[in-house]
Each structure stands twice: as C-alpha cells, then as structure tokens.
Specification:
The chain has one domain (about 5-100, about 115-210): Class I glutamine amidotransferase (GATase) domain (Rossmann fold, 3-Layer(aba) Sandwich). The chain has helices at about 15-25, 55-65, 65-75, 85-90, 200-210, and strands at about 5-10, 30, 45-50, 80-85, 95, 120, 130-140, 150-160, 160-165, 170-175, 180-185, 190. It starts with 5 loop residues before the first strand and ends with a helix. It contains five helices and twelve strands. Helix content is about 25%, strand content about 30%. The strands form two sheets. It has a nine-stranded mixed sheet. It is globular, with a radius of gyration of 16 Å. Strand 10 (about 170-175) and strand 11 (about 180-185) form a beta hairpin.
C-alpha cells in the first residue's frame, strides 16, 4: 500500500475541489479514485466520499459505474471511510428524496448502499433547505470530534436528514425543526452531514482527526 494516500471518490458530483484543497492544506497526499478496481487493491489507505446532490441520481451513478459494490466491500472490510453530505445519506437504506426510480415508476424506493439500517427523511418545516452554520453536539468518545468543543459550529446545506434505526452509530446531533443525526461512526466508518471543508479551522481539525484516527 502507498502509505497515507487518500482516495477521493469522483463520481460526477460537484464540490470536490474544496475537499482536495482542504486535504492539501493538511498536508495529506490525495488523488481522485480513477475506477472501482482501484478500491479492491492497496492503492489507498483511506477513502473519502464527498459531494452534494440528489440521492437517486447519486445512487444511479454509483451503480452504473460499479462504485456501489466496491464501496460496500471497502466498508465491509472495515477500511477507513469518511462520507460528507450525500456521502452520509447514501449509507442508509433509502431516502424520501427518491421514492422511486425516475426510469421505473412504481418500482419502490431507490436503494442506498444499505450499510447502516435506517432511512433519510425530509425536514418537516417550511424553511428548507437548511443553509448555514449550525451548532453540532458530539457524543462522548467520538474520534472525529476529538479535541473540539462539545458544541461546535459547522456549515450545512441540506433538505434531508439521516434517521438511523438505532442510536448506536450516532456520533453527533444537531437541531433543525427536530433533533437529528448529523454524524455517524461505526468501526472505521465515519460520515458527516455538514461540510468540514467549508467549516474553517473547526472543519480542518475534524478532517485532521479522521486522517490520524
């Protein structure tokens, strides 16, 4: 394995440049994953799944490209993984954002990666999406939030939130119309709803924690 190389998943989503810039600032060697086959070998020490987008469109892109199966295997092998924004939501079984496939009406909900039991739901309020800074409360013992204030502010932009079946994977919570899961940790799997790459010094510290974990 090339020591310390971070694979950044590039599946056609936007907002990848700011993630690469943040990793560069932290001195972390990183490059875009070129194909699913690279995830089967020892090319990367860690995998980062960034981006924003529609649940159904993202899952369609992952399935068509072969990345969906490769990511499931990576996580099943408990290799270090960090999901950001849509990279958190697709870990779940389904989303209210994609109640059926666009090319197959009546087919039922679009299936997520299904590595965490639960689904993604739309915020119940009228002011959606949530855009801007929000206080995020970490659970005790979280490695992602190590050294950060118990209630730190991160930058969010999303209309849907993850609702795990149990509280076991929840690493942090935030409030927006309701109290919801804003980060998960499970073995070497971690994911956040907010954008650490857009959250200043606090976000960089969280990324550094993941790189060092």
């Amino acid at each position: 394995m090339r020591p310390g190389v971070i694979g950044v998943l590039n599946y056609g989503a936007g907002n990848l440049g700011s993630v690469m810039n943040a990793l560069t600032r932290l001195g972390a060697p990183a490059r875009f994953v070129r194909n699913p086959e690279e995830l089967a070998g020892g090319t990367y020490a860690k995998l980062l799944f960034p981006g924003d987008g529609h649940f159904g469109t993202t899952m369609d892109a992952l399935e068509r490209s072969g990345y969906a199966g490769a990511i499931r295997r990576w996580i099943r092998e408990d290799r270090p993984f960090l999901g950001i924004c849509i990279g958190l939501q697709v870990l779940f079984e389904s989303s209210e954002e994609a109640p059926e496939r666009e090319d197959s009406p009546g087919s039922g909900p679009v299936r997520g990666l299904s590595v965490i039991p639960g689904r993604v739901k739309r915020f119940p309020g009228r002011k959606v999406p949530q855009i801007g800074w929000n206080q995020t409360e970490a659970k005790p013992g979280s490695l992602l939030f190590r050294g950060l204030p118990e209630k730190a502010f991160f930058y969010y932009i999303h209309s849907y939130y993850a609702a795990p079946d149990t509280g076991d994977p929840v690493a942090a919570e935030a409030d927006y119309y309701l109290r919801y899961c804003s980060a998960v940790e499970q073995g070497n799997l971690a994911a956040v709803q907010f954008h650490p790459e857009k959250s200043g010094v606090t976000g960089l510290r969280l990324l550094q924690n993941w790189l060092e974990a």
